[in-house]
Design brief:
This protein has about 200 residues and is of the alpha/beta class. The chain has 5 helices and 10 strands. It has one domain: P-loop containing nucleotide triphosphate hydrolases (Rossmann fold, 3-Layer(aba) Sandwich). β6, α3 and β7 form a beta-alpha-beta unit. The structure holds adenosine-5'-triphosphate and magnesium ion.
Length: about 200
């Protein structure tokens, strides 16, 4: 946010989706990857997008980063509507506002470099698609702690797509998708007991 930005009702939102639908054509069929999704992700929050395979998680992330376009509806990031931008505008906007789409795998040493960049370029949001996917419990926890620190120490907004229930206790909220439909957000930390049990066994 800078002084010249419009003050909008979306001021406190990092991400706003307003009746967003994304359909893909596959042969003669239409796949409704996202179906009339309306949601808000608050600034300076760490949220997880969860849902079964094919529920639209990556599609949602791609719309937020401007990699893909909504078929209908409105997408705003940092109070700026991106759904109306052309490719050139989107590319410039992305360089300014989107952190990095990081996938950690086993590159923990590289991570501090990636994080330094995220802080230096000061993007509006950081996005991650399955950052802990391939990791053992300990490494996954390290990543989740690092992401949490990015939020608390550097005021980042982090949107993470994940299948990993271990992440639930680290995030402020879990946004659930099912067959392209947003079924609601709940507070994170709900599975703290289960996660504690998992740590002990790891
Ligand atoms: N480019 C595309 N062309 C056609 N169909 C697509 C395309 N991208 C996604 N889809 C379809 O849209 C639906 C949602 O896909 P998406 O990749 O967003 O799911 P996901 O929740 O990320 O799944 P996963 O957990 O397996 O990564 C699926 O039915 C998928 O096959
Ligand atoms: Mg995906």
């Amino acid at each position: 946010m800078n002084a010249t930005d419009d003050i909008t009702t979306e001021e406190s939102s990092a991400v706003t989706l307003d009746h967003v639908t994304r359909t893909y054509k596959r042969d003669e069929f239409e796949v409704r990857a996202l179906d009339d999704v309306t949601l808000d992700i608050p600034r300076k929050s760490f949220v997880a997008i969860m849902g079964p395979s094919g529920s639209g998680k990556t599609t949602l992330l791609n719309l937020v980063t401007g990699i893909d376009h909504a078929t209908s509806g409105r997408v705003a990031v940092g109070g700026e509507e991106i759904s109306t931008m052309n490719e050139r505008e989107i590319a410039a906007w992305r360089a300014r506002h989107i952190g990095l789409v990081f996938q950690f795998y086993n590159l923990i040493p590289v991570l501090t470099v990636a994080i330094a960049r995220a802080i230096v370029t000061d993007p509006t949001i950081l996005v991650a698609d399955e950052p802990t996917g391939d990791l053992d419990a300990k490494s996954a926890e390290e990543i989740l702690i690092l992401l949490t620190q990015l939020k608390t120490q550097f005021d980042k907004t982090i949107v993470m797509v994940t299948h990993d229930p271990r992440s639930e206790r680290f995030v402020d909220a879990v946004y659930r998708l099912d067959k392209g439909v947003f079924t609601g957000a709940e507070k994170g930390g709900v599975s703290a007991k289960a996660t504690a049990a998992l740590q002990i066994s790891a």
